[in-house]
Design goal:
The chain has 2 domains: 50 residues, no CATH class; 30 residues, no CATH class. 58% of the residues lie in helices and 0% in strands. It contains 6 helices and no strands.
Length: 90
């Protein structure tokens, strides 16, 4: 696991759970660690942070016409357009 990620998680119960994600790539390990903390939300040292995270979120392909208008000129609009075109071709 990346050194920075390890430093951030040290002291927050990470070492107790590290064996549960051993052998997995860094991204998968972090996702699983967050899910485990979310499952134990009431006792998690990450409770305040996890409670502030959205329960769900969309992506640029789900933008409404009004949201696209607001974002016009930002890099989001061309990226969403490209992704939408690729998804239709796939």
């Amino acid at each position: 696991m990346a050194e920075l990620g390890t430093q951030v998680l040290r002291g927050c119960g990470y070492e107790k759970r590290r064996w549960q994600v051993a052998g997995l790539d860094e991204t998968t390990s972090h996702v699983l660690l967050v899910l485990m903390e979310r499952a134990a939300l009431e006792t998690s040292p990450w409770r305040e942070y996890l409670s502030s995270c959205p329960a769900s979120f969309g992506n640029a392909l789900e933008l409404t016409a009004e949201e696209i208008r607001i974002l016009e000129g930002s890099p989001v609009v061309p990226a969403a357009t490209d992704s939408l075109q690729r998804s239709r071709l796939g």
